[in-house]
Structure formats: C-alpha cells, structure tokens
Structure prediction request, 473 residues.
Amino acid sequence: MAFSKLMTENLEHFRKVLQADKNFDVVYRVIEIGGRKGCLFFVDGFTKDEVLLKILQSWWSIKPEDMPADAHGFSKKYLPYGEIGLVDQEQDVIVQLLSGITCIFLDGYDKCMTLDCRTYPARGVGEPEKDKVMRGSRDGFVETLIFNTALIRRRIRDPKLSIEILTAGESSHTDIAVCYMDGRVDENLLRGIKKRIQELAVDALTMNQESLAEAIYPHKWYNPFPKFKFSERPDTAAACILEGNIVILVDTSPAAMILPSSVFDIVEEADDYYFPPVTGTYLRLSRFTTAVLSLYLTPAWLLAMMHVDVLPPWLEFIKLADQTYVPLIFQLLILEFAIDGLRLAAINTPNMLTTPLSVIAGIVLGEYSVKSGWFNSETMLYMAFVTIANYSQSSFELGYALKFMRVGILILTAVFDVWGFVAGVVLSVCAVVFNKTIAGKSYVYPLIPFRWSELKKRFFRGRLPVAKKEGQA
Prediction:
C-alpha cells in the first residue's frame, strides 16, 4: 500500500493517528527541499539532534532540477547516513516512528523514507550488582538492546553469530533479539522458539523476560525449579552462545535469558572459569554442597530434635540448650518468612538507612528474640546458615525453589515424622529429576541419562579448550 504523493495528506493523516497536537513528545516539522514541501516526524528524546541538524543543512542546498524522480533515488543520493530505509505500510511507519526512527515525507513521493539516527537513554555498562565476580570483566548488560548485542558482538567476532530481531506485544511492540551460532545451535529448538515468539498473543511484555518466559513456556508452572538461566554478564552470554545455547535479549531489560538450561547450567558461575581449574572446581563443589545443605539441614535437625533419645553421643551438642516455648516447626517457619521480610525491607530501604536497619535486624530481632523466648539460639544459628547458603546461588529462582522445597519438607516432617521427612526428600528429588528443559530434555543431564565424561565436566572444572590453527598437528 503506497502513501499519497501529496505531503499535506500524509501530514494530516499521521497528525491524527499519532495525536501529534496532544502528545508533546511527538514532533513534526514542515520543511522545503528542492522546491518541494516535506515534513519530518520524530519522537523528542529518541533522536540525535546533531545528526538530524547536519542532514537538514545538507538538504537546503538542493535545487529543484536536482530532485530525483522517486523516493529510492532521493534516499540513495541525499540521505548521507548509514541506516536508512523505505516503508510503504502505515503500521510499519507507526511502529518505527514510536521506536525512535525519524520518518520523512516529500511531495511527489509515495513512500516514507526512514532515518535511524535514534538514541536511547541508557546507564553505563557497569558491573551488575547480582552477577559480580572476583576476577574478570566488569561490564554488564543495560536496558538498551543495541548496546547489549554490541557487547556480545565484541566478544564473538565470527560471521556465524546470528542475531535475529523479532517483536512481540500488540501495544508495546517490544524488540526481542535471538542470538545463536549457526552450526552449533539445535535447529529444531531454534525454530520452535522463534515460532512461539512470533505467535505470542499478548498486549505487552510488561515484565520483560519474565513475561516472555511465561508466554513461551506455560507448562508445569507448579514446579518451582527454573527452566531458564538469567545473566546480566555479556561474557557469560557469549560463552553460552559458543556452547550452542540460545540467548534471548529483550529491549528495556538488562538480563539475558539463556536456554535450554539444566540445573547444572543454572548453578554455574563466571568465577568458575576466571580462576585456575583447582580453584574453579573448589568453588563449584562448594556451591553444590551448600545448595544441598540449605535444602536438608533444617528438616534433618527438626527430625533429630523430635527423636532426641536416639541421638548418638557424638551428636549430643545439637540438642537444645534452653527450654522451648514455641514449637520448633513454628520457629523455623516464622524465620523463613521473617528472612524474606528483611530482604524486602533491605531492597526498599534508602541507602542512608541501611546501617540502622542492619542494627535493628541484628540486635532487636536477633538477640532480644532469643532472650524473650520466641526463638531458641540453635534455631537462629541453623536458619542463619541456610540464609547465607541461599545467597551463595547466583540464581534467585533456584534459591527460592530450594526454599519452597525446604518449607514443604519441614511441614511434612512435623506432621508425619520420619515418613514425612522421607516423603519430602523423595518429592524434592522427583521435582528435579522429572523436570524438563524447554527443549524437552532431562533437567539433570548428564546424570540422567548417565554420561560420565559429561558429568565429570559439570563437577570438576578442567582446562579450557585451545583451538588449534589449521595445519597444526
């Protein structure tokens, strides 16, 4: 569908559609180029003013006899910029304009010329607060999609790296970048993911990656273990792409969604590879151990306190030293919720008040709650360890999955005693073992199906592979 060759008709039409007289940031300017009337539409704040000014200045010297016959010739001759285009669909013009692209209409031309001199407000690519490392790169993803793809391109200078752009959301038209390596990616999974994104029937991706994740994989929502790995580090995303994974970037989100991801992928951190193999192996095994302890420590201790008479002499020290006024199960459950309350309070507390909050949490809620009889000191000790162990996981989703499983085991143990503890352990193991990745494969591969060569790599960090040059032995 071509536009009218009369600029005034196009101007009036888009003024009404975009409500330019009401929206102060939708700017249009009527100009004259080579004796013909023209107009520019752009969104204030999304355009590089200096670039647009220089292009306007170059148009003032164009004479009527130098004007090309069509829009293609004009854009080729008089748009001295890298990213230009021609559009003949109204909806495409609206989406591109509201994305920050400048749109140009001229008398005598039945197509809209686009000029991509946009810029988005963005913060610096500093180190992510959550994905910090002791050694390695200090840059991180930001809320601008083009910056994030550039950070990946900087690390993978290979023409096989493909970054496809898709859109989703009837109102938001959110840009989604799908990044993968040709020849290494699972083609069936890639086609399936792209098809799911293209067929999304949502109004807007209001919560970025989480909205996308719930839309493309709505199955088994009751299983708390995460199906995706999220990272704000471009080095982690680049490494996953080189391993054959798919990385999805959503505009306005500083996190990359990596898939497919098993539980071993989610537990891994960048520090495992920024240190020598021995240190990296130790860090990885420590993380696995603390994850298991955080899941089973408090339920096992609760079970032991329910059968104090059968404890061997070498475990006498775990007995309660003081009288119990509140049943242990209620102490543990109250602390589980209280810790999350303190975490939420810390997030919503201004920086200048974090120290007073820490003092209140440490003294009032710690020491005084024990002295008042609400909690036993042993309960506080074990819950403090569990809280620290949860923070050892880089994935919030995995930390909360372990928390939900732990609370379930605690309740089953308190109600059904030994059989409840056994049932809780079996339930938590089944939740992991019978889970599936988005590709439909085992969540605990290479444990199930068992492959020792691959499993060894998951637990023990070996030397990084060195690519041999052509002709080397």
Summary: Residues 116 and 400 are 43 Å apart (CA to CA). The beta strands are 26-33, 36-43, 84-87, 102-106, 112-115, 161-168, 174-181, 229-231, 246-250, 256-259. The mean pLDDT is 86. Residues 396-433 form the longest helix (38 residues).
